[in-house]
Amino acid sequence: MTTIPKVYSIKTTPKETLESWFKLMTLGRAIDDKAPNYLKQAIGWSYHAPYAGHDGIQLAIGQIFEKQKDHLFPYYRDMLTAFSAGMTAEELILNGISKATDPSSGGRHMSNHFAKPEWNIHNVSSLTGNHTLHAVGAARAIKYYGEKAVSISSQGESSLSEGYVYEAINGASKEKLPVIFAVQDNGYGISVPKKDQTATRKVANNFKSFKNLRIIHCNGKDVFDSMNAMTEAKKHVLEVGEPVIVQANCVRMRSHSNSDRHDLYRSEAERQYVLDYDPLAKFRRLLIRYKRFTEEEIAAIEAEAKATLKAAHKAALAAPDPDPESYPDFVLPEPYISEKYPDGTHEEEGDKKKLITALNETLKAEFKHNPDTFMWGQDMANKDKGGIFNVSKGLQQEFGPKRIFNAPIAEDFIMGTANGMSRFSEKIRIVVEGAEFADYFWPAMEQYVDSSHDYWRSNGKFTPNVTIRLASGGYIGGGLYHSQNIEGALTSIPGVRIVYPSFADDAAGLLRTSMRSRGMTMFMEPKALYNDPKAATVIPDDFEVPFGKARTRRAGSDLFIVTYGNTTHHCLEAAQKLADEGIECEVLDLRSLVPMDKEAILDGVKKIGKVLVVHEDKVHSGFGAEITATIMEEAFEYLDGPVHRIGSPFTPVGFHPILERAILPNTNKIYEAAKKILAY
Amino acid sequence: MSTAIIYSFTSNKTAKAGQKIVDSFGESLKLDVVDADNLAEEKFLAYDQLILGVPTWFDGELPHYWDEFVPAMEEMDMKGKKVAIYGLADQVGYPENFADGVGILARLLRDRGAEIVGMTDVDNYTFESSHAIEDGQFLGLVLDQENQARLSKKRIDNWLEDLKKIFK
């Protein structure tokens, strides 16, 4: 039962408006009905989630969306939403059959994921509702920059079972953000009925106790009820400045998708029941019943839709397919290029600074350099506390709570809203403390992985400009959950740069480069070195370190040691110990893992022939495996013995200092391994 | 006084209940049976007394045939007309919106001047909320064929006992 103003009704809505709606709905449905034929003819559209039964609410979402001003995050069933928002029939088919000119992704993303990033119709993943966090992030930017606009997250009701949707709505409520959560409720998550999802059929009512949040229910099958609900929702967001959930009751007239058979779990009576409430048929009957259109006028529109579909079909079929040579494009955007420090080295003299000071001062400098820089995370900003290790101390005082602020204890929210906020403008740069410790980053992994896809998936149209800081590693007696290394798992995911400095100057230089670059960078901080004098260095004020440039920290000719992070220092200590015995080791600090400085590694192998790879993370499937395999493939003939790896065993890092010492690499373990290799 | 019972001829349970009502009135009341699927305003307004069959669809909605008639009803003058509503609903599957359709239509027609008759007790139903309730009573007869089919005959009989006193 709606209690919202009736702005639109069958009797009062101008005829030209009704006509435009009917045209959209008729042509949209014709495409929806035709989509399975493309698969039957082996042309494409192998994933199609029919929207039939969601017609009212999808029309309404698209109608209230103002392109290039509002932000729309449609889900995989939102064909009419995208059409109503302005995309053309041809563009929809280009997406459906995955053509190179598909404005959504150029055929890279699964079909039926409609987007047009240049209009702020965003390209999102298939993961149900994970764009809810992006919509909240975009809304944060809308609010910060004072735009009179809304962010719209469109999704099925089953997505509200996801924890990150709770995080998104909680954040929007807390921050009073201009976002509409348009929940299209067709009663099923594929074959899972609502009763198996939540105890509350009107699932939006689960959020009733949230402050600063309005909930509107509407009939998503009815054009006027949906238009009135979405119009009221947008008005409320713009005037009150608070979020709204619109739950639209829809029917799913077909199966979930073409890989689903709803006759396996829905009775014939139920299937007929939902067909009886065909929203398009209802709208058509209303137009005739209330004498707004004649049968002849309706027939003319329907004929026009057929002709338009035919022309769009023909044009889309003639469009080019993706070029197979193009697959490497858009994994990562070009980074910031350092003109002054092309190799990321310097000869500066003066006082040494600790690694934590390097990070703090670089953050401050970059926040001054770019006024569109933001940072949030857990424990980030409460009086004199600035981050769990106080890396960001003083930043909120200097740059204010709108640019530096605490996030809820919700890692996925931290990551997801960073992605979303960066969609608002290319000029924005975001830094997040991804979690209190690297060990706690796993809840954010779905956003991390999704964000890693964005640049590639959008065919180069969007990249999240985000630096993720993570306090990583052990040597602080913090096992199990304050000491793990996670880079071995992360380096297998394309689309994110990963850096792991071990000295203060490199930390400063890599952070500056990360914050000035487009794209996403995982910035791993060896927390054991924050205040360790051995990591302190002189740092030029404007120092920059390019990605993918390793640094030789000690030259030698007898053994080549490749390392990064905490173990750089252990390697240097072991090298000194060996030097005392007359053995000269070269120590290469990778600094960047992705991209990896393959050239520097291979040069060292070719020069020395004996190689030791060292890192703190597990040897088993650790990043050293990639380094070692690369050496074996590309420099085998230069080797003068097997490549050895030193790292942690295949266990967690234990808490007791005895266990931690037993598990983590140290100077002596490296020294012993070096001696074995040198014996070849 | 002219009387009509209006329900969808394509419906199943609602139509069966409607037929029972017709049978029960028998010769005691001249009762025209009108199809809600093809309802004209003139037809609706031609009667002084109406019995309307209004099932609740989905999570508390009118079925499309009544919903499509709402814009017409919103402008009607229903003064002097008596309206009794019966509705099919499912208190187990849809406890949050039990028989909402009955309440939606009753309030709409009352706002247009109609007198709503045939309220019934809410006893012996188990649900969470309903728009059909006012002052502790349903604004019509609520039948639950899904869960309480055996009670329907008695409920219809009791309701018609009251209606027979009201409808002339």
Automatic annotation (TrEMBL), chain B:
<dbReference type="InterPro" id="IPR050619">
    <property type="entry name" value="Flavodoxin"/>
</dbReference>
<dbReference type="GO" id="GO:0010181">
    <property type="term" value="F:FMN binding"/>
</dbReference>
<comment type="similarity">
    <text>Belongs to the flavodoxin family.</text>
</comment>
<keyword id="KW-0285">Flavoprotein</keyword>
<dbReference type="InterPro" id="IPR029039">
    <property type="entry name" value="Flavoprotein-like_sf"/>
</dbReference>
<comment type="function">
    <text>Low-potential electron donor to a number of redox enzymes.</text>
</comment>
<dbReference type="GO" id="GO:0009055">
    <property type="term" value="F:electron transfer activity"/>
</dbReference>
<dbReference type="Pfam" id="PF00258">
    <property type="entry name" value="Flavodoxin_1"/>
</dbReference>
<keyword id="KW-0249">Electron transport</keyword>
<protein>
    <recommendedName>
        <fullName>Flavodoxin</fullName>
    </recommendedName>
</protein>
<dbReference type="InterPro" id="IPR010086">
    <property type="entry name" value="Flavodoxin_lc"/>
</dbReference>
<keyword id="KW-0813">Transport</keyword>
<keyword id="KW-0288">FMN</keyword>
<dbReference type="InterPro" id="IPR008254">
    <property type="entry name" value="Flavodoxin/NO_synth"/>
</dbReference>
<feature type="domain" description="Flavodoxin-like">
    <location>
        <begin position="3"/>
        <end position="164"/>
    </location>
</feature>
